[in-house]
Amino acid sequence: MIRLEHVAKRYKMGEVVVTALDDVSLEVDKGEFLVVLGPSGSGKTTLLNIIGALDEPTSGEVHINGGTVSLNSTGDRFRFRRETVSFIFQTFNLFPSLTALENVQFVLDMANTSDSAERARDVLASVGLGERVNHFPHELSGGEQQRVAIARALATGNPILLADEPTGELDFKTGIQILDLLAHQAGDGKTVLVVTHNREISRIADRVVELSSGHIISDGPPRTGKAAIADLQW
Amino acid sequence: MTNMTLWLRWSWRDLRARWLQVVAISIIIALGSAMFAGLGGVEDWRIRANDLNYARLNMYDLRMALSDGSYLDQDELAAALADIPGVARSEARLVTPTLVDASDGGEALVVRGEIVGVDVSDGGPHVSSLYVREGDGRTLVEGDSGQPVAVVEYHFAAYYDLEPGDPIRISGDVALDYVGTGFSPEYFMIIPETGMFFGESSFAVIFVPLETAQQLAGREGLVNDVAFILDEDADSASVQAAIEARMEGAFPSTGYAINAREDTQVYTTLYKDAESDQWMFNALATLFLFGAAMGAFNLAGRMVEAQRREIGIGMALGVPRRWLAFRPLLVGLQIAVLGTALGLLAGLGVGKLFQGMLEDMMPLPYWEFSFQFGGFLRAAVFGILLPVVATLIPVWRAVRVAPVDAITTGYLVAKGGGLARFVQRLPLPGKSFVHMPVKNVLRSPWRSGLTVLAIAIAVLIMTTVVGALDTFLATMQQAEDATLNRAADRFLVNLDFFYAANYSGVTGIESLAGADGEPLFTGFETAMIVGGWLIHGDEKIEIALELHDMDAALWTPTATEGALTADEPGLVISDKAARDLGVGVGDRITLEHPHREGLLSFRLVQTEVPVIGIHDNPLRAYTYMDMNGAALMGLEGQTNYLILNPAPGVEPDEVRLALLTQPGVTSSQAVTEFSDAVDELLEMMTEILAVAQGMVVVMAFLIAFNTTSISVDERVREIATMFAFGLRIRTVMRMQMLENLVIGTLGTIVGVALGWIVLNDLFVTVGENEIPDIGFAVTISAETVLLAALLGVVVVALTPLLSVRRMRNMDIPSTLRVME
Ligand SMILES: Nc1ncnc2c1ncn2[C@@H]1O[C@H](COP(=O)(O)OP(=O)(O)O)[C@@H](O)[C@H]1O
Ligand SMILES: [Mg+2]
To answer: Which of A63, B125, B163, B569 is disulfide-compatible with B629, CB 3.0–4.6 A?
Structure first.
């Protein structure tokens, strides 16, 4: 589904060149639940942004769906983000002037879905927020806001979910619930990539890709063994 | 302040980060302060010029004009008025109405006018002198006495580009030798009797030696006008009383009116105009500065919000609040200083430009322009103070918050709510792309309100300026309709005296024939027109009283209330006069009018008469009476005013030229000339309009630009999120435009509404004092509203297009990067 070949990303800041990603090759299958692990500054966000076509690699290639999706023009990339990937952010990035329902409705309207309000209500109910649909983001807790963000990403119906530190702003218990929710999506056939700097979280994944200074240093099942979500602690 | 340069450098960085908005606000400040600086001296310049010209040209202090048709022997009058204490000098003149024909080959140019016979002995006239500019020919000299030599009044000559040597003919088909174009202080402005503008287009003053005037009018040795200059310390009222006593003694049956120069319409208009123009410029400049202050307020609010975390950290570190406030305030100050400095510089140019315009539009012999320190000072103070004060408000609000609130994370994510909750229940149509912009407006009602207000101010300026013209034009249209509702081709002809209606000279006009032998006129009415006053309580209004045989007249006014005739003589007055006097149909008022005492003498008397009707002409002076009122004036069966209906196919010029040769005819005017004057007015106003509109477009645009770029700044994260979800740039753009559309529409509605209020206030209060002669129908035309909408709605709504590039080049990952 997703294939990266020798992807590198460098930032030139005057004389200094910062290498965010260096020769990263990676393949992710449909329906996988993959965690990208690494310390701050290791290039996790950069990787996710490149997969999500928010960013372009300096060199190397990205193939989606066996190269059937072109990402060459700005228009291609906008369409790719509209139809193939959906982002979930650490700071939620909900639209503050819209209610929970409207935040979800927004992406449905974008795709010209009929009955967008009904559909949005359904998706919110599926993430456990059926009761809070008419609240504004600032009236919701962090966990609830992140659920709205997930509902928004799910409502797009896109096959790939990209979550960058989705639990970063949340407490332990809430974080667990959010991860559970995301893991379920992989079970339902979506491809889910979660970025975290927390090794404990990475234990819930089938597969962990570990980054350090822009290199992949390991790729496989969690080093300390896969754990059930209920067993996590941090 | 420990380290001034650090703070300066810091605020300089803030400025640079938002340089586009900074420049936009500075330009608005510059516009406002340039107007203050450059035009701050208009009143002073004009008043000085008025004083100077009146002094140098020896304007009279008092003037005695005998009643129409009254004349006195010049020697007897001189003897009667000799040696009155307090009078420094007096000169008698003969002022007679005439037609002036300045046709030169091609088109006919025949207008009403008057011949002023002045004392040219010994380098005179010494009272109300003539001033002929270099290159405009020569003035009258003693040797011209008795010769057909004339100086033509400047305004008329300039209006038609006449020069000495051009042919000038007057009533009775007399040719005069045009030797110079000159100014007289009594005619610094030509205020027409009907209409309000371009008096000089339809009124010519011809100065000739007194003896010449007497010969031309067939009034040898007679005069009808005396101008006095008083001793410096003389009391005007007691001199006037002395003149009245002498007149009572020598000529008890001769009517006259004495006016001080301060009572003349030209004088009061010149001084009042200076004042009201200044008021208008100041008001405009203030509005600009308010718009700028609004912009500064927005920008400052945005900056302190961005700095709030830093401010919070500062507070946590124990930095005194005034230091924290200093940085954003410094930015406000820098913008204000930059804008004002630009404005003062531009003000120098604006001032020079306006001086030239003044000289063109208000031709006077002498102009002296001094540097207006006061205006520049005011511009500097207002230009700097207003934006700084506007910055102060959000800064003060920011430094008052508790430090914990200021440093809370996630505070950068603006809150929802505001009034958004209220629209929550509203079933807004369409998609969330439509909801969101509306909700963004309501999310921060305070800031949206200010933006709306800023745009409203721009629209207000335009509506007021253009609406004032609409009102003038609508009122003129009303006057025109009232005059042209019937017999629209008719000619109004004034005679130089009262004649029996069946006198052959009068009936001879009726039967005038054209070159083809066909009669020129198919309709003919002998009417009467006299000057007079309406008095009720303390109110006294000058009027022109027309007497018509209402049953047989070619044209009669339309009564909106009451009737045109009654059993006893009664008045049909204008609605404005009725309001000013506080009377209605059925009330009795005092009419002061001339009464014939002898062949050549009239006296003003007062008669109680009822108001029997109100007519539909907005011009206050127009007053009508049935011919049965002629008895009140001792003028039964007389006429001095003819109404003629030209035969089909007869051209106005043919009528004018035919009437010119008729003895006794002093003026002929087609009623349609009134609409020509209105058209001409419209043409001139179009230029002023264009300037006003241009300024408003610039201002509305700058405000809109400022608002949009601030809101893009504020929403940059939201926008990046939309892009992350693949929402197209054009959709985001449409949302931004929709939001601006909402703001622009609100601003336009508020602006037009405020404009309506200001206009009404302007015409009710200012108009009442400055232009009491007209009952204005305050009007904002559909075109004006459309124009306002174009500026306030369309320009504002399209402004986001300017940020298209910025959106296209947005670095989405960096924008979305967690800001910690
Ligand atoms: N726009 C940018 N300009 C310069 N350097 C950047 C930019 N974005 C990221 N970097 C650098 O790239 C590296 C990887 O960043 P990032 O992918 O955000 O790491 P992570 O998400 O793992 O914390 C860091 O060293 C960061 O400083
Ligand atoms: Mg990161």
So the answer is: B569
ipTM: 0.90
Residues B425 and B468 in one domain: yes
Contact indicator for A214, A21 with CB cutoff of 8 Å: yes
Domain boundary among B654, B670, B686: B670
DSSP-derived 3-state class of residue B179? strand
Question: Whose atoms come closest to the Cα of B814: which ligand?
Answer: 1
Please check whether residue B411 touches A, CB under 8 A. Answer: no
Domain that holds residue B716: 418-486+672-820
A142 lies in a domain? yes
Question: Measured in angstroms, how far is the CA atom of residue A197 from the centroid of ligand 2?
Answer: 8
Do B772 and B666 share a domain, yes or no? Answer: no
Amino acid at B384: I
| Residue B373 confidence (pLDDT) | 84
What is the domain range of residue A122?
Answer: 29-57+74-231
Distance A164 CA to ligand 1 centre (A): 13
CA–CA min distance B430, chain A (Å): 9
Q: Are residues B605 and B708 in the same domain?
A: no
Tell me, yes or no, whether B599 lies in a domain: yes
Report H helices in B639-772: 652-660, 673-724, 729-761, 767-770
Beta bridge partners of residue B228, listed in sequence order: B62, B90
Start-to-end Cα distance in chain B = 29
Regarding the beta carbon of A71 and ligand 1, being less than 6 Å apart is answered no
Does residue A196 lie in a domain region? Answer: yes
B820 to chain A: closest CA residue: A91
Residue B600 contacts A, CB cutoff 8 Å:
no
The residue of chain A nearest to residue B721, with distances taken between CA atoms, is: A93
**pTM, to two decimals:** 0.71
Instruction: Count the helix, strand and coil residues of chain A and give each as a percent rounded to the nearest 5.
Output: 35, 25, 40
A32: nearest Cα among A134, A167, A185: A185
Residues B217 and B86 in one domain: yes
User: Residues of chain B whose pLDDT is less than 50?
Assistant: 1, 195-196, 409-414, 416, 820
The residues pairing with B183 across neighbouring beta strands, listed in sequence order, are B131
Which CATH number goes with the domain that contains A216? 3.40.50.300
A180 Cβ contact list (under 8 Å, min separation 6): A229
Angle at B431 between CA B426 and CA B434, to 5 degrees: 75
The total number of structural domains that make up chain A: 1
* pLDDT of amino acid B410: 42
Query: Mind listing the pLDDT tens digit for each residue in A85-94?
Result: 999 988 888 8
B417 touches chain A (CB under 8 A): yes
* B609 in the same domain as B595: yes
- Alpha-carbon distance of B496 to B213, in angstroms, equals 14
∠ at Cα B721 (B295, A167), nearest 5°?
Answer: 120
To the nearest whole Å, the CA of B674 is away from the closest chain A CA by: 59
- Partner-chain contact B817 A45, CB within 8 Å: yes
| Residue B408 distance to chain A (closest CA, Å) | 13
Q: Taking the mean position of all CA atoms in its chain, how far away is CA A224?
A: 23
Partners of residue B66 on adjacent β-strands? B256
Domain boundary (B231, B254, B277) is at: B254
Phi and psi at B614, nearest 5°, equal -120, 130
> What pLDDT was estimated at residue B418?
57
pLDDT in tens, A21-75: 999 999 999 999 999 999 999 999 999 999 999 888 999 999 988 877 778 888 8
Is residue B310 one of the residues assigned to a domain?
A: no
Given this model, what pLDDT does residue B573 score? 94
What's the pLDDT tens digit per position in B326-342? 777 887 888 888 888 98
In this complex, the residue of A52, A102, A136 whose CB is nearest that of residue B432 is A102
Residues B504 and B622 occupy one common structural domain? yes
Q: Which positions in chain A touch B442 (Cβ < 8 Å)?
A: 97
Do the Cβ atoms of B726 and A83 come within 8 Å? yes
